[in-house]
Amino acid sequence: MPLQTTTSTWYSEEHGLYTESVRKFFGDELAPNIERWSDAGIVDRDFWVKAGAAGILGAAIEEAYGGAGAGISFDAITIYEQARCSDSGWGFGIQSIVIHYIRAYGTEDQKARWLPRLATGEMVAALAMTEPDCGSDVQSVRTSATKDANEYFINGSKTFITNGQTANLICLAAKTDKDAGASGVSLIMVETDGLEGFRRGQNLNKLGLKAQDTTELFFEDVRIPQDNLLGIQEGQGFYQLMNQLPWERLLIGITALGAIDFALEETIRYVRERKAFGTRVMDFQNTRFKLAEMKTKAEVTRSFLNDGIAKLDAGTLDAATASMAKWWGSQTQCEIMDECVQLHGGYGYMMEYPITRLYADARVQKIYGGTNEIMKELIARSLDVE
After folding, report:
1. Residue 365 neighbours by CB under 8 Å, 6+ apart
2. Contact yes or no for 260/332 (Cβ under 8 A)
3. pTM of the model
4. pLDDT of residue 232
5. Does 238-383 carry CATH code 1.20.140.10?
6. Which of 79, 125, 193, 213 is the right S-S partner for 165, CB 3.0 to 4.6 Å?
7. What is the SS3 assignment for 103?
8. Mean pLDDT for each 10-residue chunk of the chain (386 residues)?
9. Does 13-123 match 238-383 in CATH topology?
């Protein structure tokens, strides 16, 4: 199945050509390596460079900065196609998020410094918000950035950081004013190559997402030039994060749909071939009803996400709608993965079957990007407005 519906308003001929190109690239370069990367706990560094050469990393970056200038909906296609081939290890989603932070808030000098290298894969990005003691409560971060001459003096730690072992450009949330609450948070871009005082922890041992290099980051008296402050004014970090969260949350919903489409295809193939009591599993009424329910949920999700992508492209995607996409998509994903495992029977519990890996990978979708409980609260707040 494709990402778009037949009535999608955002999907053009150029999107179709791009879809074909990305699908072929992932089929040749990503899919054959999924299991190996999962065992290694990290995606090959040269894959990022290959993706850059294929025009995937820079699709939404303006031509003036080395990209294709095609728009954020092309990143949506990449996110879907990656999940559609059953991969959740490559950290493109975070790369896209950081790119759009720089596009939205960076100065011309900052865009010229970082966007071309992000487009080629010379630079891999990470977004460092979460801390051990405050989870994703950005207002309460303790990592500090203190001015010293023309530098920031950074101390603190971050955890659960995607691309943590690979990234050499980190968008860091830090307190530039510890007494100002949300207004004291700033985003500072940290180039890590040869950086004194910066240290990476070991890969974290996760339930799923085994190929994703998720780690802790440590900053001990790290000195960063003040012109690495994203934008031109301190204290804007919290608002910059909030304004970009709709894309992050829609992205999670799109990932869910890609994984759902792959899981359904795999499960339909399995129940057609597998027999129980001399009958194809596909021929049991329970199987057919379960598949009908799952397919309907997938199509409802697809329609809603396409509406969200159209709004994103037009710059009108609001926080509540993005929260709905994240909550509904991830919740539906987990429900469908559970049903698909059940239809696989005992083999659904064996790691050599892709559905088992997808089941484990799905669970975190309800947690990161803001828990689903937070999503419901944000949706509810939008209803309580006179």
Report:
1. 252, 255, 256, 329, 330, 333, 334
2. yes
3. 0.96
4. 87
5. yes
6. 213
7. helix
8. 87 96 98 97 98 97 96 97 97 97 97 98 97 79 92 96 97 93 94 97 96 97 96 92 94 98 98 95 97 98 97 95 98 98 96 96 96 95 84
9. no
- Cα 141 to the chain's mean position, in Å? 21
Cα 364 from Cα 371, distance rounded (Å): 9
| Token code pair at residue 198 | 């910066």
Domain spanning 127-235: CATH superfamily: Butyryl-CoA Dehydrogenase, subunit A, domain 2 (2.40.110.10)
Q: How far apart are CA 166 and CA 344, in angstroms?
A: 35
CA distances from 139 to 6, 69, 185, 238, 286 (A): 42, 34, 7, 7, 48
Q: Where are the domains of the chain?
A: 13-123, 127-235, 238-383
Chain Cα centroid distance, residue 137: 18
The SS3 of residue 318 is: coil
**How would you class 360 by CB atoms within 10 Å of its CB: exposed for 0-12, middle for 13-18, buried for 19 or more?**
middle
Count the alpha carbons within 13 Å of 18 in the hemisphere toward its beta carbon. Answer: 26
pLDDT of 357: 97
pLDDT the model gives residue 385:
73
Nearest in space to 111 (alpha carbons), one of 119, 240, 224: 119
Q: Answer yes or no: are the C-beta atoms of 58 and 22 closer than 8 Å.
A: no
Active-site residue numbers? 248
Roughly how many angstroms between the first and final C-alpha of the chain, as a whole number?
41
Domain boundaries 13-123, corresponding CATH code: 1.10.540.10
